[in-house]
Amino acid sequence: MLRIAAAAAHFTRDLAFDLERIGVIIAHAREAGVGMLVLPDGALGGYVTDLRPTDADEVDLPPALEPNGDEVRSVIDLAAEMVVCLGYCEAGPDGERYNAAVALCGDGILGRHRKVHHPAGVASLFTAGRGFAAFDTPVGRLGMLIDHDKTFPEAARSLAMDGATIVGCLSAWPTSLTNRAPRMAQDRQARLFDLYDQSRAAENQVLLASANQSGRSGALHFLGRAKVVGPGGEILARTWSKGGLAVAEVDPCAMVDAARAVLHHLDERRPAAYRC
Fold first, then answer.
1. Which of 71, 99, 131, 164 is deepest in the core (most CB within 10 A)?
2. Would the CA dihedral through 59, 63, 67, 72 be positive or negative?
3. Closest Cα to residue 265, out of 240, 233, 243, 242?
4. Which residues form the CN hydrolase domain (predicted)?
5. Measured between alpha carbons, how far is residue 238 from residues 90, 246, 248, 259 in Å?
6. What CATH number does residue 235 fall under?
7. How many domains does the chain have?
8. Rounded to whole angstroms, how far apart are CA atoms 116 and 129?
9. Which domain holds residue 58?
10. Quick one: CA dihedral 180, 147, 66, 167, positive or negative?
11. Predicted local distance difference test score (pLDDT) of residue 97
12. Measured between alpha carbons, how far is 129 from 131 in angstroms, rounded to an integer?
């Protein structure tokens, strides 16, 4: 059996603060017997402060970090035996910036992902990633999605087709910017955030661990609502708007095999009939 945790937590531009918070979250997860932990997007350096910037030259961007830099190496040391996924802004070799995620443990880097789908308001601020790939880890074959990636069914499906049985979704997902509800639980983005998590898990019959930022950053009010979702779309554990850990004890291979025992969505596909 494996305990998977998804975190809801707030992160900032202060990298020392972020590393300290990551250390505390990992310690709490370890006390709970967690073997895999998914942290939010922007766990190192935070996320943007507005999805509709009026002047791209004045945007408060997160620090661009080296993919094998000191910050990532510090988390490797903290992770030890645990598989940890976290998001950050990656510095490209030619000055470009990627909204990126890394999966790691004490042995080093296990896999990486660069966000492919960017909302229109920030698309000019980051270079888009070029694809989706799963990779092997001590807890099973894993794939990662960042924020807006999970809005697109093809993204999670690509990971499932590449053998992922667990998908980590790392988000800095805010409440609605255009029609914010008086209560966060009633916000349409809260509904969509949960809907996408459950749909991506159920349609691909995989386990999904969805982490998200909480609190406020500039114009954005993040939802929290971290969760672990089973391969039938059922929420196995969750947090609400405040920080916390959603922890579920699972048997990934057995649960995925059971979900696919009669209806096997990947095998039943008819690609020749699709126009995308």
1. 99
2. negative
3. 233
4. 2-252
5. 29, 5, 9, 21
6. 3.60.110.10
7. 1
8. 4
9. 2-273
10. positive
11. 97
12. 6
